[in-house]
Write a structure and sequence with these properties.
Blueprint (H helix, E strand, L loop, with lengths): L25 E9 L2 E8 L4 E5 L4 E8 L2 E5 L2 E5 L4 E4 L5 E5 L3 E8 L9
Antiparallel strand pairs: 1-2, 2-9, 3-8, 4-7, 4-9, 5-6, 5-8
Length: about 120
Amino acid sequence: MTTTGTIPAAEALALADLITPTDRGIASRVLAKTGGGNVTLFAFDQGEGLSEHTAPFDALVIVLAGDFAITVGGKPLSAGPGTIVRMPAHVPHALDATTPARMVLVMLREPKAPSGV
């Protein structure tokens, strides 16, 4: 199965089949992308993560498997399978996989106002 591009429409797909974990690394695949945001599937090896950063829009982390140590605005959180964490726009956040882990990241962009309004 290819790991580039978005997923096909009108198909029931197993998330586990859409990404191949990488030893000592992070794998990602964009599942859907529009002007309003995107949905990306990630697989992290244990000890891998995303360093502290900010984004200009809200994001949701939905943990599918494994465990993450997440920090949002300096607040430490533990997130395991079946949990969701909202990371607000412009607030520093970071995450580390404490075990091999998978998550879906949903980026929520604000729609642009129509021109001339």
